[in-house]
Each structure stands twice: as structure tokens, then as C-alpha cells.
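so my prof wants the structure for this chain in the C-alpha cells format not the other one, which i didnt know existed until like an hour ago. anyway here's the sequence
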Amino acid sequence: MELRVLNYFLTVAREKTISKAAEVLHLSQPTLSKQLKDLEEELGVQLFIRGNREISLTEDGVYLQNRGKEILSLVDTTTSNLQKNEVIGGDIMIGGGETQAFHFLSVILNELMENYPDINVHLYSGNADDVKDKIDMGLLDFGLVIDPVEKQKYEYLPLPISDRWGILINENHALASKAFVTPKDLTDHALLISNQTLVNNQLSEWLGENLSHFKIAGSYNLLYNASLLVKEGNIVAFCIDGIINTKDSGLVFVPLKPALTARINIIWKKKQIFSNAGTLLLEKLASHTKTKSS
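here's what i got, hopefully its the right format
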């Protein structure tokens, strides 16, 4: 499958008609129709459902659309980084969940972008499982994740930052006046947990037993929407301190006892070859980490 034809397919999927897509691509309609038919024959699947007015995608078409966008994005990033190889520039793709550690990273990123205007930074927000999947596919250069790191799969640099875990609750909740909460305090309360695999393992260890023994009301990916659910009811959300500004918010953060903290790491794929911008970021991170740790 040629990248040119993949771009044709994505354009038709976006425009929803052959005529509009042909106009955008500066092709004749018969030429574009033939290219799409050839693509379906090459792949051995039907990609489109051709209606009277619009074209829609089959299940296979939706899959190709999603992966096709990722493929072309990776090609664009690679091309940009190669073209800027003589100067320090190009794209740095970073993913991470909600963590205070990003403040540490932000200082370095701002310094790089100020000193090297040809550097572009692209941020992706998602939990650790999402971030690692995108690193594996080559769509992200770096990811911010908590301990433990899959050392057989990723290179990593521990950052001089730790996250503190606690609960987020409505200010009128029965636990809101406590200085800290223990596993016993949470036995009879509905809990909202992160849907990250490693986080749930850590919470199970802290609680002293399997999560199934507690009242799990649901899960969340990123905390903001979960905080709105917490604010309007009696649900208890396990979360990291500092992600939600609780001042005058109607919400309260209460730390766990015994304390549960998580070390933050920046990870990248083993044998990863970076652009000069990515290499420079890694050098700056190592330097800042050493300085802050000493």
C-alpha cells in the first residue's frame, strides 16, 4: 500500500464524497474511484459503504482510517526531523498522565524551545497504558510513567520527583475532616480508581487485599471529569496530589496513611534513535536530574 493511496483513502473518509475528495486532491473522479477500488482489492476487504449522497466506512475502513492517520503522522514527523538534521530542530513527541512531574519537564522544554526555535513539542495526555502503547508504535518519543518500569522493554531515567497518593472527596464527605485516611477508613465507601494496570496493583498492596473486596464504583482515565463526579456525590477517588486545585472548589484532598508515593520516570523505547532535538532533551534531563539530586 503506497502512502499516496493511503492519503487518498483518508481524504475520501474525511470528505465523505468522491467528488469533494477529488477536488481536494486535484484528481478526476474516475481516477480516484479506481485508486480506491484497487486499494480494496489489494487489501481484500471492503472499506466503504457507498450511499446515495455520502460514503461511510465499514469496520475495516474505520480501522484503516485510525491506523492510517498514525502512519502518516509518523512519516511527517520522521521527514521533519531528517530535514532539520543540520540544525537542532524537529518534533519531540511526549506523552504522560496527570502528574506534578510535568512541571519539572516543562522548565526544560521551555528552555529548549526558547534557545532552539526550530524545536516543536507535541504533548499527548493519557494514562501509562496508553502512553506505552504509543511508544511501542513509534508515535511518541518519550513517556512519563510511575514506577515500576518494564526494564526489559524500555530505557528510562528516574526523575527527582515523586507523586503522593491520596483521595479526592466532596468537602461535605464524612472523611473530609481527617488529616489522613487508612485502608480501614475506606471499607464502607464507594471508590473510584484509575484504570491503569500498575496503579491498581499498587493500590491493592496499600489496601492489603484485592480491590474486589472493596466497593469499586468505577474507574477513570484522567482526573478532571472524575473530579466533577466526586464533587456532586459521595464517591471517593484515589488520585495524585496537586492534579486538581482544591482551593474554593468544593473538593478536599486527603493523603493516605501509611503514605503511598510513586517515583516518576521518563521512558523511551530500547534502541530508539532520536532526532537531534530528542537527543538534546535527554541530555538536558539527565543534567537537570543530576543537579537536583546532588
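also thought this was worth mentioning. The CA atoms of residues 88 and 115 lie 10 Å apart.
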